[in-house]
UniProtKB/TrEMBL annotation:
Enzyme Commission number, as recorded: 1.12.98.1
Membrane spanning residue stretches: none
Gene Ontology terms, MF aspect: coenzyme F420 hydrogenase activity; flavin adenine dinucleotide binding; iron-sulfur cluster binding; nickel cation binding
Pfam families the record matches: Fer4, Oxidored_q6
InterPro entries: 4Fe4S_Fe-S-bd, 4Fe4S_Fe_S_CS, Coenz_F420_hydrogenase_gsu, Hydrogenase_assoc-protein, NADH_UbQ_OxRdtase-like_20kDa, NiFe_Hase_small_N_sf
The protein's name in its UniProt record: Coenzyme F420 hydrogenase subunit gamma
Listed SUPFAM superfamilies: HydA/Nqo6-like
Family, as annotated: Belongs to the FrhG family.
Domain of life: Archaea
Keyword annotations from UniProtKB, A to Z: Oxidoreductase
Top enzyme class: oxidoreductase
Length: 264
């Protein structure tokens, strides 16, 4: 089994063959494509998103060496000048008081075909957005904003941090041009404010909540609990990452895609 086929099989993803093309032909074309050039840029965050990437133990080596070319990254590549890239994974929010971060983010937008908000800090600002400066330990600045407030973002991978599975699936989808999988992330690219209260206003108040508890299970800070079959938010614990909302099956995941990934 080919590397591409093995990874797609591992994650339950299948190539979409042309009506007149065999599965072997589809995989041959996919493997002959030039490997996408990927850069990793770290701004203001905890590096949890990069750590989540490394948790793809079973496929990490082929993912990083045989499926993509890592062409830029502070800890991944010995390179000072930012090159042209197909995909740039930007982790962390951007501090307006940090001139270097501002310059780097704008350069990323010029050099990358696709700019991806990698994780909640980049996508929504997460806990950094509500920092006031002087906390222990750090930050000393207070002006942290999601990167879409400053540059055009093409995709947003949600999560604090994103799961290893969604990271790998996104890479495979980008390689295969699987727009069905990428479309929800494109829709999230402009969604720069998030809170546990989104569940109340956008799901519960719209009579969409089914009381499954997925939002509460997804919350890393235990800011959500289920009361009488509905989510209840503790605002003092909420870090504004938005993961509860994007993990809600009634919010943005297309039913067709869920059924496909689960083999239903």
């Amino acid at each position: 089994m080919s590397i591409l086929a093995r990874i797609k099989s591992f994650f339950g993803m299948e190539a979409k063959p042309d009506k007149n093309a065999s599965q072997e032909e589809v995989e041959k074309v996919a493997e002959e494509k030039a490997k996408p050039r990927i850069g990793y840029i770290h701004l203001s965050g905890c590096t949890g998103d990069g750590m989540s990437l490394t948790e793809n133990y079973d496929i990490l080596a082929p993912l990083l060496t045989e499926m993509v070319d890592i062409v830029y990254g502070q800890t991944l590549v010995d390179l000072w000048e930012m090159p042209e890239m197909d995909i740039a994974l930007v982790e962390g929010s951007c501090c307006l008081q940090d001139e270097h971060s501002l310059h780097e983010l704008k350069e990323v937008r010029e050099k990358a075909g696709l700019v991806v908000a990698f994780g909640s800090c980049a996508a929504t600002g997460c806990f950094t957005r509500y920092s006031r400066g002087g906390q222990q330990a750090q930050p000393n600045h207070e002006s942290f904003v999601p990167i879409a407030d400053l540059v055009k973002v093409d995709l947003a991978i949600p999560g604090c941090p994103p799961s290893p599975e969604i990271i790998a699936k996104t890479v495979v989808a980008a390689i295969n041009g699987d727009m069905d999988y990428l479309q929800p992330m494109m829709d999230l690219a402009g969604y720069t404010e998030a809170c546990g209260c989104d569940l109340q206003s956008k799901v519960v108040n719209q009579a969409l909540c089914i009381g499954c508890g997925t939002c509460a299970m997804a919350c890393q800070t235990r800011a959500l609990s289920m009361t009488n079959g509905r989510p209840e938010l503790n605002e003092n614990r909420c870090i504004k990452c938005g993961i509860c909302y994007v993990q809600c099956p009634r919010s943005w995941w297309p039913a067709e895609r869920i059924n496909q990934d689960l083999g239903l």
